Amino acid sequence: MRNISLWFGLTVALAGCGHQSAPPAQAPLEVTAVTPQTADGVSSDRFAVTLHHDREAKLAFRLGGTLRAMPVRAGEQLPAGAMVAAIDAAPYAAAEARAAAQSQQAARDAARGSQLVAAGALGDAQAGAAASNARAAQASLAAARSDLAATRLRMPFTGIVTARSAEIGEFVGPGTPVATVVDTASSMIAAADIPAAQAAHIHAGGAATIELPGRAPLTAHVRRAPGAAYPASGMAHVELAIDQPAGLLSGMSGSVTFAARAAANDTLTIPAEALLWAKDGQAGVYIIDAHSRAHALTLRCYGLGGDRVRVSGLPANARVITEGAGFAHEGQWVEAGQ
């Protein structure tokens, strides 16, 4: 009986010690979690678009001068090589005449030097210098003739003059456009600048619809997808080819709607605030597993659209931690609200 009492007392004591050594229960971290949404690709928003021919040029003189002739008007069709404008050629004609005289004199000196070398009256070095001078003078003459020819601006191809940007009597500097011409035989292109977030989903060959005032909608496809956005504006340039361009004119403007591209099966969007970090096309988040534990995950990141980020790599039915993600650690017990 005494042994039984001792055994019972020891058992109670051990049980008491075990109870006192257990750590207090840790409260879960309160966080906010969301369910990712399906990525719909490009939205149905309309963007401004302008039409132009694929082959279009702004003509400018490479030399400065006073505009003396411009026999063309907007809307006029011209063959390749036709004169569009001319600047005052007198200074360049005078330079060409001087270069021609110098070239002739240098050629005579070189010929005389050759004769004197043959007669033994002149050394080879002196004759060689005269020949070099003759070649340099000939090159100067070729440059002067090129400058004189450049005083006339000619059509680079058969096409239409769409605009004049200078008038007779004006001084035009080198590189200053004086006229815009288009090759009407080239394809009609539609150009649009759209926000980079939407542009990230546009792909070459993608379908689009262009609407112009007073016309039925036109079908088009993306001719050139954007390679990058302009840093200053955050806009990306997109070019589209119009499927039936008959009756369209360069300079027309309207709007374009891009067809949504089906997202990949695992492509979803999550709030931007859920990101712990983002770099080189990847981003880190915390998700909540089936046991209410926080689990760190690295996702593929495709860009920001508004306040949401397009990502892939999330498991099915995942819940992503937003508010409180910065305080979580791997395996932590969390309690999530919406």
Describe this structure in words.
This protein is of the alpha+beta class and 338 residues long. It has four helices and 23 strands. The protein has four domains: 29-40 and 264-337, conserved putative lor/sdh protein from methanococcus maripaludis s2 fold (Beta Barrel); 46-54 and 187-258, Beta Barrel (Elongation Factor Tu (Ef-tu), domain 3), CATH 2.40.30; 57-87 and 152-185, RNA polymerase II/Efflux pump adaptor protein, barrel-sandwich hybrid domain (OB fold (Dihydrolipoamide Acetyltransferase, E2P), Beta Barrel); 89-150. Helices cover 23% and strands 36% of the residues. The strands form four sheets. Strands 1, 2, 17, 18, 19, 20, 21, 22 and 23 form a nine-stranded mixed β-sheet that branches. The radius of gyration is 39 Å and the shape is elongated. Residues 1-24 have low confidence and may be disordered.
